[in-house]
Amino acid sequence: MTGEGRAALQYGKLAIKTPVVLAPMAGITNTAFRRLCREFGGGLYVSEMVTSRALVEQTEGSLRIIGHHPSEEIRSVQLYGVDPATIARAVKLLVDEDKADHIDLNFGCPVPKVTRKGGGAALPWKRDLFEAIVQQAVRAAGEIPLTVKMRKGIDAEHLTYLDAGKIARDAGVTAIALHGRTASDYYSGEADWNAIADLREALPDVQVLGNGDIWSAADAIRMMRQTGVDGVVVGRGCLGRPWLFSDLQKAFDEYQRDPNSNAAIDLVQPTLGEVAQAFKRHAELLVEYFENEDHACRDIRKHVAWYFKGYPVGGEFRAALAQVQSLKQMDEILATIDWSAPYPGEEAEGPRGRQGGVKSCSLPDRWLESQSLDAGDARMLLDAELNVSGG
Q: I need a labelling partner for 370 at 20 to 30 A (CA). Which of 47, 82, 87, 314 fits?
């Protein structure tokens, strides 16, 4: 395959020139953050995960999550669910009401409140349930491209990714994204890129994307070369660093020109002032999204540590910004730092966001005794979609 072919994703009629997907993150990848990231570079920007039941019921929260700004050329929505019929109804709603151009199904969430009810990364263990969900969702989607995102499995002794990948491929999905960790790994340690390469080799006839430990553009190209995937999925690496998508676009432009090129690219190394400007822009977009300045300021507070990681701003500045109550106050706080301070280098790089250690995956009683769904499992799964967002 040529470099040009490898450097683009084809989702149905949608051509994605830069093969980078923003991973859905609950409470993070709302319209405001997606718009900010798109201002820096190309790719596919997916909404926060929304439960199929909430969407079918058309709750206010679910409709807000799937909303897109007119500037978002590809409206990408990620669904989470455990019931094939409900997911199919949610997909059909998105198609019939023209709410999405691409739909992704989440089978990778490791959060205990999700897995303990059989959802997220726990679900592919029940092969018949997984197959039913994907098959019915693909049929309901029609010509709208439908993809799946998953993890390696529940833990090292209960891996599901190869079987699930083949089931999804046979069901007709457009692409499969694999996070190289199990649910028990949560976000600890290093992602297993060998597993991603194994999935790529096992499924040569469907697009495969790799997820896990993409902290820089160099990481993305290294994953492409090491695993042979068609694209990468970026999650925590872009927290507080929306300019990462600029680096990724430059790197993939060069990769498309020559997959073996080691030419240096002009990476974004923002001064403290440029970080402050991006932070303020993010807040302004949140005000537009929530239509409420107070809500936006409360939401931006969780991003403070990510944006200013490694920069010499001091504890008082961080504390003040983490309690900001208005855009005017934000301007006053940002004015207290040295905007000309240079990029601090490695101190601003590397892991960010949730990490934690390996932990036992919370599962329903007797979940691992069989890979087929029984009547008790079916009743329990009815409670797995009580929230608007699965994350």
A: 87
Final residue in a domain of this structure, among 249, 266, 283: 266
- For 303, how many CA atoms within 13 A lie in the half-sphere containing its CB? 27
Q: Helix (H, G, I), strand (E, B), or coil: what is residue 381?
A: helix
Going by DSSP bridges, is the β-strand pair 20-22/207-211 parallel, antiparallel, or unpaired?
A: unpaired
Residue-level pLDDT at 2:
36
> What does the pLDDT read at residue 283?
98
**Which residue in the list 37, 109, 238, 297 is annotated as catalytic?**
109
The structure's pTM equals: 0.93
The residue whose two tokens read 């718009």 is 35
H or E stretch at 45:
strand 44-51
Q: How far apart are CA 32 and CA 278, in angstroms?
A: 12
Query: Over the stretch 206-251, which tens digit does the pLDDT of each residue have?
Result: 999 999 999 999 999 999 999 999 999 999 999 999 999 999 999 9
How many angstroms separate the CA atoms of 100 and 240, rounded?
Answer: 27
Structure tokens at 51: 């439960």
Q: Rounded to a whole number, what is the largest CA-CA distance in the chain?
A: 64
3-state secondary structure of 380: helix
* Cβ-based burial of 344 (10 A; exposed 0-12, middle 13-18, buried ≥19): middle
C-beta neighbour count of 273 within 10 angstroms: 14
Whether 361 is catalytic is: no
Please give the Cα distance from 368 to 380 (Å, whole number): 15
Task: Please answer whether residues 183 and 110 qualify as being in contact, where contact means their C-beta atoms are separated by less than 8 angstroms.
Answer: yes
Cα of 326 vs its chain's centroid, Å? 29
Q: Tell me which amino acid residue 201 is.
A: E
Tokens representing 122 are: 């726990």
Q: Which helix (H) or strand (E) holds 44?
A: strand 44-51
Give the domain extent around 107. Answer: 3-266
- The predicted-structure confidence for 33-52, as pLDDT tens digits, reads as follows 999 999 999 999 999 999 99
- Residue 391: pLDDT over 90: no
Give the integer Cα–Cα distance in Å for 280 and 300. 9
Is 8 inside any structural domain? yes
